[in-house]
Amino acid sequence: MAGGTLTAPVDPGRDDWHRTVPGWHLAFAVFALLTAGLIIIGDAGPPTVERPAALVILALLCGWYAVTGARALHRTHGRLGVVYLCGALPLSAALWAAAPSGPLMSFMLYPHIWALLPLRRAIPVTVASVTSMAAVMIVRSDAYGQEPASVLLMAAVALLTALVLGVWITRIIEQSRQRARLVEELAAARTELAEVSREAGVLAERERLAREIHDTLAQGFTSVLLLIEAAKAGTCERDQAARGHLDQARRTAMDNLAEARALVAALPPPQLRDSSLPDALRGLIERFAAETALDAAFTVTGTPRRLTPNEEVVLLRVTQEALANVRKHASGAARVEGMLTYEDTDVTLSIGDDGHGFDHRAPGAGYGIGGMRERVTEIGGTLTVGPNRPSGTLVQVELPS
């Protein structure tokens, strides 16, 4: 389900109605220009003295639409739409009273009512608007030249047309919202399905590795422990050095067996399960000093804080690998120093020795450095391996946090 199967995120707000809003803006501008042209031409229009008033009212209506209505159409059923209609309705009625061509703007007013108000409010507002317009036509019968009966008939037709148009607009908006919700739910379901699929793959791989580790490493470490116990039992009590080496080998095998079991169970490393990161690193270095008889020190500067489990595991693994490199490559080393520094924006781990150093880029240097670098890079950090001062090798990790 990853990659090409998932579609790009869909914005639920860009539904069918919102995509038609630019067309409504264009329609409003066309009707406004047409109304202004009819007012100016004056064919069957008001007396000359009323034309400026009609143009002023039309300009106010256009300005009010630009300030409030145009933005309100992008937020259907919002407070801004109510504000727009509170100004647009009286301005439209005044335009009807000032110019017989004013009713043209009602072709835009009624869709706005239904787009900006819920159904239970749009119906009474539409009825009130049509009624007020009919009253204007009756009062201004001198300008419109219509009998009251004709006006009432036209009002009934206009009301029916407005209601039908309003129901159509309402259905478009509601259907588009339902589709937007369905698209959003579908995207969420696909994301969830992809996560479930990924977790299933991880679980299957973990089970495979668990079987492999159980059948190989875990059994191998158990056999090593048994052999060490047998060798220790057969060692003379006076041979304390040999018994000490066997004890160290036994502890190492037991620790690695615990690591293998933790990997099988997807648990954090044993060193971090009951200890903080500074205590775990200090324990590693102290144990390294006991096993190698090297002088070792570990310091913590700044105020320790919890990192993410993955970050703490990476710093622990880097420390283990750096100490292993000292054991294998740092010939002539007499001291190992570790430092964990907590700063406001990052955490720095340094492991250095005073040996002769080694070329970590040389063939045969092993995969430890590359593995460390990959681990650190995955969590957004940087790893550097270089010469220490005055001699030796310094491994340093800088981790933003």
Q: Return the domain count.
A: 3
Range of strand content: 5-15%
**Total DSSP E strands:** 5
End-to-end CA span: 32 Å
Separate helix tally: 12
Name the strands of the widest sheet in spatial order: 1-2-3-5-4
Structural account:
β1, α11 and β2 (335-342) form a beta-alpha-beta unit. It is built from 12 helices and 5 strands. Helices cover 67% and strands 9% of the residues. The chain starts with 15 loop residues before the first helix and ends with a strand. The protein is α+β, with helices and mostly antiparallel strands. The chain is rod-shaped and about 130 Å long. Mean pLDDT is 77; it is low at 1-14 and 43-49. A 5-stranded mixed sheet has the order 1-2-3-5-4, covered by helices on one side. It has helices at residues 16-41, 51-72, 79-98, 106-116, 119-139, 141-144, 148-233, 240-265, 270-273, 277-292, 309-329, 368-378; strands spanning 295-301, 335-342, 346-353, 382-387, 393-400. α2 (51-72) runs antiparallel to α3 (79-98). The protein folds into 3 domains: 16-186, no CATH class; 210-265; 271-400, Heat Shock Protein 90 (2-Layer Sandwich), CATH 3.30.565.10.
Describe the SSE topology.
Elements: H1 16-41, H2 51-72, H3 79-98, H4 106-116, H5 119-139, H6 141-144, H7 148-233, H8 240-265, H9 270-273, H10 277-292, E1 295-301, H11 309-329, E2 335-342, E3 346-353, H12 368-378, E4 382-387, E5 393-400
Parallel strand pairs: 1-2
Antiparallel strand pairs: 2-3, 3-5, 4-5
Helix pairs in contact: 1-2, 2-3, 3-4, 3-5, 4-5, 4-7, 5-7, 7-8, 10-11, 11-12
